[in-house]
Design a protein that fits this description.
With 304 residues, the protein is an alpha/beta fold. The chain contains eight helices and 16 strands. Strand 1, helix 1 and strand 2 form a beta-alpha-beta unit.
C-alpha cells in the first residue's frame, strides 16, 4: 500500500525528502514550491531546487504566491490526499489546507523541538553554541511548530558549519520522513506532545547580525562564523574590502580586538583569538587562508 501525497518544499534542504518519497513509490499527486525568484547578477527568474526536482521526475508542479485564497484551497482539497509533507516550504498553511488531507499534514523540522521553532533553526542552534540538534517529523497544527512529534533523530554539532549540518540533517530527515510515512500507513505511528517548557524561537537571520564584532569572545564569534557559513557568511572589512569568514579556529592569543597577531591571519578577539582558515572576497569563490594571503598580504598589527 502507498500513500497519496502532496509535497510542499522549496530549498535544497527539502530535495532529499522528495526524492526518498518518490523512491518509496508513494503517489505524489502534486508538488508545491515557491514561485521562481530573480537570482544572480542578471536577476533571471530561477525555479527553486524542489521545483527543478519535480520537473525532473515529471510531477505536477504548483507555485502559488499564497494558499490563503479559496481557489488555492479548493484545488488542494480536490487532490484527495492521504497526507501532505512539508519541508521548508516558506508559506503559511491556513487551517483549510491543514484539514484537507485524510491523515493530516506533516512537517520535517531541523531542530529538537520545542527548541528553535521558526525560520532558521539550524543556524540558530550553531550560533547559540548548542552541543546537539536534530530533525523531527511533527504533525502540523495552526501554531508555529507546536504540533506533536512522531519521530526524531539527534546529532552532535561539534565543529560543523551551517552547510555541513544542513546537508547532514537533510539526509537524516529524508530517511526519517520515509519511516514515518511507512508507520503511518501501517497505523503504528505514535505521537508525543512537545514539552511545555524550553521553547525558543529561531528568528530569520538579519543582515546586520552577520557583521563580526571582534570585541566579543572568540568562542562566540566562532559560533557566528560557523552558523552563517557558507551563506550568508559572517563578514568583516580588511583594508576597506568586505570579506566573508567561512571558517576559523579558536586559539590562544591576545591583542586589541580586530588586531592581526601573526602572518597566519590570527585575529584578536575580546577574549582569545581566531585563526582564519577559509574566507571569501566579494565576487570570488571561497579560498584557503594561505592562498588568499599570497594575493592579499596582511601584516601583524593591522586591524580588521
Amino acid at each position: 500500500m502507498t500513500l497519496r501525497l502532496a509535497f510542499l518544499g522549496t530549498p535544497d534542504f527539502a530535495v532529499p525528502t522528495l526524492v526518498e518519497l518518490i523512491g518509496q513509490s508513494h503517489d505524489i499527486a502534486a508538488v508545491y514550491s515557491q514561485p521562481a525568484r530573480p537570482k544572480g547578477r542578471g536577476l533571471t527568474a530561477e525555479p527553486s531546487p524542489v521545483a527543478r526536482q519535480a520537473e525532473l521526475h515529471g510531477l505536477a508542479l504548483r507555485t502559488p504566491e499564497t494558499l490563503k485564497n479559496a481557489d488555492a484551497q479548493a484545488e488542494f482539497a480536490a487532490l484527495n490526499l492521504d497526507a501532505a509533507i512539508v519541508v521548508a516550504y516558506g508559506l503559511i498553511l491556513p487551517k483549510p489546507i491543514l484539514d484537507a488531507p485524510r491523515l493530516g499534514c506533516f512537517n520535517l523540522h531541523g531542530s529538537l523541538l520545542p527548541r528553535w521553532r521558526g525560520a532558521a533553526p539550524i543556524q540558530r542552534a550553531i550560533m547559540a553554541g548548542d552541543a546537539k540538534t536534530g530533525v523531527m517529523v511533527m504533525r502540523m497544527e495552526e501554531g508555529l511548530d507546536t504540533g506533536p512529534v512522531l519521530m526524531a533523530e539527534r546529532v552532535a554539532i561539534g565543529r560543523k558549519t551551517y552547510g555541513d549540518l544542513r546537508d547532514e540533517l537533510a539526509r537524516l530527515g529524508a530517511d526519517l520522513m520515509a519511516r514515518a510515512m511507512a508507520a503511518l500507513e501501517r497505523g503504528t505511528i505514535e505521537e508525543h506532545a512537545q514539552p511545555a517548557e524550553g521553547a525558543t524561537y529561531a528568528k530569520k537571520i538579519l543582515k546586520d547580525e552577520a557583521r563580526i564584532d571582534w570585541s566579543k569572545p572568540s568562542s562566540e564569534i566562532d559560533c557566528l562564523v560557523r552558523g552563517l557559513s557558507p551563506s550568508p557568511g559572517a563578514w568583516c572589512e580588511m583594508r576597506g574590502e568586505r570579506m566573508k569568514i567561512l571558517y576559523a579556529d579558536p586559539v590562544d592569543g591576545q591583542g586589541e580586538p580586530g588586531e592581526i597577531l601573526d602572518e597566519r591571519l590570527t585575529i584578536a578577539c575580546g577574549q582569545g583569538a581566531l585563526r582564519v582558515a577559509r574566507l571569501q572576497r566579494a565576487g570570488r569563490g571561497p579560498m584557503q587562508t594561505q592562498d588568499f594571503l599570497r594575493g592579499f598580504s596582511l601584516k601583524p598589527g593591522e586591524r580588521v
